[in-house]
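Methods — Computational structure assignment.
A single polypeptide chain was analysed. Its primary sequence is given first, followed by the predicted tertiary structure written as structure tokens.
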Amino acid sequence: MIKPRIKNEEQNIITKDKTLLAFKTGDDFVFFSVADNRIEEFLVYQRNKASYKDIYIARVNKYIKGIKGYFLAISDKEEVFLQEDEIGQVKLLNRKYDGSLKCGDTLPVQIKKEAYKNKSAYGTTLFELTGSLSVVSLAKSQGQVSISKKIEDKKRTLIKDAVLSYFASKDIDISKYNITVRTGDFATLDEIDTLISELCSDIEEKIAFLDGIEDKCKNRLLYNKIYTDFSALYELIKDSTKIIADNKEAYDYIKELAPEYEITLYEDSKVDLVSLYGLKSKYQNIISDKVNLKNDGYIYINPTEALNVIDVNSGSAKNSKDKNQYILDVNLEAAKEIAYQIRVRNLSGILIVDFINMKSEKDITILTKALTSALESVKHSPKLVDITKLGLFELTRVKQSGDIYSYKTTLDKTILR
């Protein structure tokens, strides 16, 4: 496991009070980030199921010419689909790579997209490691160093020059890696010299891990997991003002990952942690098909096999003197709630939003700007593709890890116990 870098108190910038609640349910670890009396985010780490960015020792089972890809076994029951486009810098464990894969070959493969319903997980050999400062991945051809555009130009130039200079001085070839410097503290701190030093060490550690994958696999059995990505959990940990574990196993799980943070083990036998934080009602709000709005409106969220449909409905406008203004107000509130629900449910793929119909072009423009702004708070922000002639807002969001429905069984056992 690659340890996330340790942040000192000055660097641990938190914008609002957040409590991280940790549970262990069966073989799974479940985490809820709670703020402003609602669940902000959830995470599930499943020991017996392949998760986003896990790396396994896999075996090639078959090649399907029509879809130009391979099915690789990562367990006796689970397969990963590896498209030809995702093959690069292959690290075969049973023979020297000659440019092609053969049935029976063994190699490390990373989960790029989790399995969903009857669809297999997608894999890649272009391994990617994520940290709080950087993302390092194997490049298919020539790699590059990229700096987040959210960082001001002057800092971006300084950071890039420092990274290139650091690795040149150590005679480390970084041309086969794509290196991305994340926004994080670089966007908020003026004194960044120390941070640049940490960044370069962080990148070097990831490169060493990627270069040594074959060695990590040598004494491991087929189907063994050799890497679990904890970056999402660590982000929740460092952004929390309070961390509470429901049991000793959950406590130890976090403590091993982030020993520098204070963690409380909850031990009150009279009131459990779920009841103490009112998680049942908060959970219902992010799993229910219907979500009520404050101004008497409501939205329906209907996930299907092909896409997610979100329908906005008005309540009673009897007390409103201006019906058009009332509809705009409901839509604007719905836009904020929809962004929240997309984020907390981790909805992805194609999303169709049916707002209450508005005739005014000015109101439509106001709503479009409000929705676009609200979606900026969502990781891997959804993109507004089009507004159809019927007034439907078409959004797309890259699917990586599973949505809340994928983990519903585990979440139900944790909350509705």
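Note: The chain has a mean pLDDT of 89.
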